[in-house]
Amino acid sequence: LLSRRGEASGMALAQEIFSRWDLMNEDERIAFLATMVDRFPPDQAVLEPAITAAQAPPTPANLSALHLASEAKRQEIIRRLNHAPDGTRRLVRMRETLLAARKTNPALDVLDSDFFHLFASWFNRGFLHLKRIDWTIPANILEKIIRYEAVHEINDWDELRRRIEPPDRRLFAFFHPQMPDEPLIFVEVALTDRVPAHILPMLAADRPIIGPTDAKVAVFYSISNCQNGLAGISFGNFLIKQVVEDLRSELLGLRTFVTLSPIPGFAGWLSKQRGLEDSTTALSRDERQLLSLLDEQGWALDGKVAARLTPVLEALAARYLVTAKDKRGRPLDPVARFHLGNGARLEQLNMLGDPTPKGLAQSHGMMVNYLYDIGQIEKNHEAYAESGRIAASGAVRKKVRPV
Amino acid sequence: LLSRRGEASGMALAQEIFSRWDLMNEDERIAFLATMVDRFPPDQAVLEPAITAAQAPPTPANLSALHLASEAKRQEIIRRLNHAPDGTRRLVRMRETLLAARKTNPALDVLDSDFFHLFASWFNRGFLHLKRIDWTIPANILEKIIRYEAVHEINDWDELRRRIEPPDRRLFAFFHPQMPDEPLIFVEVALTDRVPAHILPMLAADRPIIGPTDAKVAVFYSISNCQNGLAGISFGNFLIKQVVEDLRSELLGLRTFVTLSPIPGFAGWLSKQRGLEDSTTALSRDERQLLSLLDEQGWALDGKVAARLTPVLEALAARYLVTAKDKRGRPLDPVARFHLGNGARLEQLNMLGDPTPKGLAQSHGMMVNYLYDIGQIEKNHEAYAESGRIAASGAVRKKVRPV
Amino acid sequence: LLSRRGEASGMALAQEIFSRWDLMNEDERIAFLATMVDRFPPDQAVLEPAITAAQAPPTPANLSALHLASEAKRQEIIRRLNHAPDGTRRLVRMRETLLAARKTNPALDVLDSDFFHLFASWFNRGFLHLKRIDWTIPANILEKIIRYEAVHEINDWDELRRRIEPPDRRLFAFFHPQMPDEPLIFVEVALTDRVPAHILPMLAADRPIIGPTDAKVAVFYSISNCQNGLAGISFGNFLIKQVVEDLRSELLGLRTFVTLSPIPGFAGWLSKQRGLEDSTTALSRDERQLLSLLDEQGWALDGKVAARLTPVLEALAARYLVTAKDKRGRPLDPVARFHLGNGARLEQLNMLGDPTPKGLAQSHGMMVNYLYDIGQIEKNHEAYAESGRIAASGAVRKKVRPV
Amino acid sequence: LLSRRGEASGMALAQEIFSRWDLMNEDERIAFLATMVDRFPPDQAVLEPAITAAQAPPTPANLSALHLASEAKRQEIIRRLNHAPDGTRRLVRMRETLLAARKTNPALDVLDSDFFHLFASWFNRGFLHLKRIDWTIPANILEKIIRYEAVHEINDWDELRRRIEPPDRRLFAFFHPQMPDEPLIFVEVALTDRVPAHILPMLAADRPIIGPTDAKVAVFYSISNCQNGLAGISFGNFLIKQVVEDLRSELLGLRTFVTLSPIPGFAGWLSKQRGLEDSTTALSRDERQLLSLLDEQGWALDGKVAARLTPVLEALAARYLVTAKDKRGRPLDPVARFHLGNGARLEQLNMLGDPTPKGLAQSHGMMVNYLYDIGQIEKNHEAYAESGRIAASGAVRKKVRPV
Asked: Is C296 exposed, middle or buried (0-12, 13-18, 19+ CB in 10 A)?
């Protein structure tokens, strides 16, 4: 592909390589990827002098030359594979294989870095189109919405229809022009008259439906990335902001933009805390004691038990979201990390907001609203990015303290 | 744009920067571009250790890290400017200014290198769409065809129509999805029953028109790049090959794919040769003598004079195309460089193929056909690229010798 | 609507009338329709002299005048209602109500005649678009295919997908430009390598799928009218012929165009024949005796019984299709009437072609292939239309005789 | 076409008839049309009893039967011709020929009545689409705008562009779905800040251009019917009302909808009046005397003369528009008839509003504004339609009196 022949007949050759790839088994594919790493490094004959030149003294020109010289020929291979019909989609699929193979083949990391670099450039937000998904959308796209929904499962076409057809529902997705029937990411929105605390009534088939012009609140209740092969390329931030902007100009009555979000890491964190020594855990002794109620089967169905657990679970969820950090000092919870990083504010904790088995398993049923306050997003984002400060409402902030 | 604020409100900010750019005068724009060079170099704190690490020993991982570390922050700026509405087109326009400014500001070269790098990635052939331009195309696109035609000028809408509407004419252009009404490059094709030697009869309004299914030859008689801001990004090779492929499958009677091309550098080269000493010129004494006929006003209208000049001018044109080289050893003539580099063959010289003032001025009216022979393209390209060998027909090859 | 105000503000007024209609109950709607009959007859003051004039002597001019004068103002009302947004679809819905109401209100017949007259003009085949329905079609259209399928029920989206996505399946529908998401009629096609005798293997999910270019036979196995409000406007003839033409030019390997059709009136006719006196029935005594096997529960599952019944049921089905006529002398079976009227030929009888409860109930499981032989359609149609002669293969013709 | 063969192979047959038509000369075409009249009258065998039945007594049912029976078979022929590819457009072209031939062949009148009847049904306003024509519209449609403009000629593509591209200009056309690149009628609109009195400054290339949101007045300055073959089918009324409605909801600042119209019959009427005896002319003696100034070459360029003529010409134009009637009692001026019939009001006379040779020739340069006042349209239309009353402003009304 990089040879003379590649220049003359690139498209046909790229097509041929993909056809072979389609026929390879797992091992052959990994071997193919490893070959790309081995055979297409940067050109050492150019790179060495570029390094030397860049050292004394470094000028813009020789640094620029160094950047070019240090680019592995792998990137040019990937660029040429993109010439094949449907090349972009096939490269995204190829990276899916690569990402899986990396786990056991760290030598492939550099190849993934090349893929990532090119995809970040090709899937630049400037090239993406926002599209509303409703019941007039082709079936081959809708079936992908069903398949890719990762937060609140869509079981069949009737349920899909309930998410996109009623006047109080919206679903928006980003598309890339080269993959017109493949959503990249989508967000589901409910239009309501108040900030919701519970997911099930909001999804119920027989809920009261309000007219869009009566809506005061737009609730982002599900965000799903669709392409594993685009892992690490961040679309969610742009998607939410674009949808907020579009909804604001379409529906003048909307005042509040808020999520109703899971807390996927809460139960795991809590379980770990309960297993720690007193001196290192984030829990008070009283809290620990109360939490033993969680161990009883069916506690969530027993109103009295749930009521006793409410203050302690809300306090602990607040503490988890505000204070638990990963190694890089960011919020431990991935959903919190995403929304707080976007400039949203932790607004409200919702005891038993999601009483489904999945909800109970991941967060003892707790849900949370993140608020997108147009006037505050930039400030929140800045504080978060510079000093790690987490924006939280007074109500949440109070709950951080031990019960 | 790179700051925290840039992350939170990138689209609005990019839009704002372009709005300011639109209001700047020439000097302010150059100052703006210079600021990009100065303020957004690679991060020295990351780059230095990366250079050190890449030296002993260079592993794929640390070379990959070096590549990332040596990328100037300018590239990220350009990527974020692309988020603005119509950002891609505006960046292409910005590079037009940059290319002009570079000539007197070599410090801007590195910035152009960044633009070039990103544009080469964004305008990857895999993202381009080939579109036939005919009389059903929107006027705002057609007017650009009129404006961008660089070989045989289109004077008005009637002339445009004659190039795109008759059944024996085709015009194809590449488009990028983000600039749907801006052709990037286009080629004009005439369907004929033989390889043409003269341009004027082929463009004449009252020529006989043949049905496409009767056509045996497809003549590429004009190729124009449309976007100065994309200078250096090569589309022509892909365009011609795609058009050959599409026409072949549409019109089964087509046997021959050939250009009718100008020789833009011939007259200049010849004039220089005539001014040189005998010992260094490429001309024989007899040739020199005969060429003095060119100095008479209106020689091209005098059949006898033209007949005397024919052998010598054809010999010299052949010699020019086959033997005259630039500093890098490539054909001196830019059109020859393009087609020969694509794998075409120098096929036939056409004395007074273009007797217009422009044709006489640039090549004493001489034109040339380059042949795209599907079965030979790859081989020709390889020979050209590896050893600089130029593919030429026997007839042309014979003419290289002195008269 | 016919008043001055109607002329000035017709669109708004038509819209208003439909809005009121939407709020009316059944009785009010019938009253509304009755009012149209009563209040908007032809203009008697114009009609009377026109009748007089047309009598002695009738000239083209006075007959033309008579035609105009005898048009009821109802038609102009309907034309103006069509000005409303979505007016055409709403008029089609209105005629649904009218058709139901006619049964008990013969006074409404003349109004239906007006609707029919206008719809026949508006839904002229020249205005209809043929569209292939596949898996890339919007869901709101696909759900109508599920709903309107009247021959072999589609139970869910997976089954729909099996009818439109595999390479050996086609579904084509006619659309009117004013009702772009409402199919008018559709036909389902299976591409096979031989003329099929049984419906279930052909619809099976796990059947072998052949590539379209290997197909030799196109089987029309289901044709469904979609709009009750367009009853009497005949699209099927045009649809089949267009699909035959399109498939022939797309798939050059196709040799045979054939249906696999139900015989909906067979069981009813047979039951009636069995109840008649010997002297008037179409059955022989032997046949009657054998037919008593049909009265045993589950006979179709018993191979031996089915084998004994085969000759007699095939003979009787042939006799029914070829000789049983309605009052107007046309084939009694509605499906036979449709295909034979189109110029198709009765080709082959298929014992237990449809062993489902529905198939057994309507025709004791018998199915039939009608053959669309391009070279014979016109001749068949002419013989049918002029002398009622039914085109049938030799094999079928032989079976008409008593066993 | 009406035969058995027509039913079986109608589309191909219709196509064949059109192909023959294309090859016929004028005389052959007229003969063809005459044949349609002669050979396809109503079916006398059905019609005669229908007439008898309809006489004593006439019931809705037998009147409906009479209407059907009196329809000439010609209409069915036309309906079947519409099945041909591009049939509708070809029928419209056929009627162009018919309309020309009628003038010398009154026997063709009944055929035109059939065409008219069907076209009125097929081109029902409910089937028409309003489309804004701007610079992004395909060239093959734009060239038709140039060709069909009948009021203020468009000389070339630059002038066309000035009518459709600036932000203060609009052009809207009606299209039929079966003729998607053929405008049926179009209106040109200028957005201004006041009611204009002169056409040339409004069309000037260097006029000041106002932003659409600053516009207070929408001026309909040119309305052109495009299809001669649709003569008599009225679209203008619907077009203007739809455009008023659309502009009102797009541009909230618009307060006034007004035309700037020619008075095509004024000069002819005036010339006739001047030739009449004193006793029968509509002119006073003083007026006659003053009007002799018109006979001087170049009077319009002489400010003093024009000033002297202003009161008398305005008075006479007002008198012409308000009082001159055709045989059916309608306004004599066709443009006045159109706008007043739509419910507009005669608003303002504009001396030398159109000083071009065409303007001077048809109305001595006089122009007029008709006002479309949303709140009054219905009332005006009703008064006009019922009692022939013409809506006119006080200013115009005053001018009707002799100077």
From this structure: exposed
Residues 6+ apart with CB under 8 A from B395: B348
Question: How many alpha carbons lie under 13 Å from residue C110 in its C-beta half-sphere?
Answer: 26
Average pLDDT over residues A340-351: 95
CB A264, CB A334: distance < 8 Å: yes
Supply the DSSP symbol for B380: H
Chain D residues whose CB is inside 8 A of the C71 CB are 67
Task: Verify whether the Cβ–Cβ distance C181 to A137 is below 8 Å.
Answer: no
* Angstrom distance (rounded) from CA A43 to CA A49: 11
Among C315, C340, C344, C335, residue whose Cα is nearest residue C256: C344
- Number of alpha carbons in the 13 Å side-chain half-sphere of residue D237: 23
A136·C137 Cβ contact <8 A:
no
CB distance D124–C82 less than 8 Å?
Answer: yes
Helix residue ranges per DSSP H, B165-294: 199-203, 236-250, 266-275, 285-291
Give all strands (DSSP E) within A226-323, no chain letters: 256-259
Q: Report the alpha-carbon distance of residue D109 to residue D98 in Å, rounded.
A: 9
| pLDDT of res. D6 | 55
Dist. CA B283–CA B285, nearest whole Å: 7
- Per DSSP, B17 falls in state H
d(CA A12, CA B115): 29
For the beta carbon of residue B92, count every other beta carbon within 10 angstroms.
Answer: 23
Question: What's the pLDDT tens digit per position in A296-305?
Answer: 889 999 999 9
Does residue B351 contact residue B402 with C-beta atoms inside 8 Å? no
Per residue in C288-316, pLDDT (tens digit) is 999 999 998 899 999 999 999 999 999 99
Residues of A in contact with B121 (CB under 8 A): 79, 118, 121-122
Is the pLDDT at A1 greater than 70? The verdict is no
Q: Which two tokens stand for residue D258?
A: 């007004």
Closest CA to C98 of C235, C90, C10, C39: C90
Q: CB count, 10 Å around CB of B251?
A: 17
Give dist(CA B90, CA B96) in Å, integer. Answer: 10
Q: Is D135 part of the contact surface with chain B (CB cutoff 8 Å)?
A: yes
DSSP of B242-254: HHHHHHHHH-TT-
Q: At what angle do helices D109-122 and D87-102 cross, to 10 degrees?
A: 150
Residue with tokens 């006045």: D336
pTM for the structure as a whole: 0.92
How far, in whole angstroms, is CA A128 from its chain's centroid? 16
Q: DSSP secondary-structure letter at C151?
A: S
What are the structure tokens assigned to D116, written together?
């008219």
Q: Tell me which chains share at least 3 CB pairs under 8 Å with chain C.
A: A, D
How far apart CA C173 and CA C129 sit, in angstroms, is 8
The residues, ordered by sequence, that sit 6+ positions from B97 with a Cβ below 8 Å of its Cβ are: B26, B29, B30, B33
- CA-based angle A121:A122:A127, to the nearest 5? 110
Q: What does residue C328 show for φ and ψ, rounded to 5 degrees? A: -90, 10
Q: Is there a contact between C385 and D7 if contact means CB atoms under 8 Å apart?
A: yes
CA distance C346 to C371: 6
To 10 degrees, the CA torsion angle through B173, D177, D228, D83? 110
Q: How confident is the model at residue C57 (pLDDT cuts 50, 70, 90)?
A: confident
What percentage of chain A's residues is helix, strand, coil (to nearest 5)?
A: 55, 10, 35
Q: Three-state SS string across C316-380, please?
A: HHHHHHHHCECCCCCECCHHHHHHHHCCCEEEEEECCCCCCHHHHHHHCCCEEEEECCCCCHHHH
Q: What is the pLDDT of residues C150-202, one digit of tens each?
A: 889 999 999 999 999 999 999 999 999 999 999 999 999 999 999 999 999 99
